[in-house]
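Page 47, continued from p. 46.
Same chain as before, 132 aa.
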Amino acid sequence: LRDAGTTILLTTHHMFEADQLCSRLAVVVDGGIVEMGTPAAIKGRADVGRTFTFADYHGVVRDRAVLDALPGAIDVSDEALDGYVRWSVRTAAGSAVDAAMIARTLDVPPDHVVGEPATLEDAYVAIVSGAP
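Result:
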């Protein structure tokens, strides 16, 4: 139907679904539209931080406080997996923390730290929590 030019209206609270299926979104709060645009545009405009992850196979992180002390780090978590620990560092919006800074802090190659872009869920929460 969409390919034939028909407009389809989808109402959902499932942000992953909306991100995958919709070409344009409107975020509605208290009956009014507070944000509208493509999923990419909304994710780009929302005031959200990023999440950086890396796999620690050799026990590089001996003291979690090193990651907690990164400027703008708001959540540090680890998950023990089969033979390694996966670490995640979530940063505040506008934080100067990036993958290279984390790599330097841990003395690991820069390509070992991966920055994950904000999700539509992250953007939605930021938009709705800041809405009047």
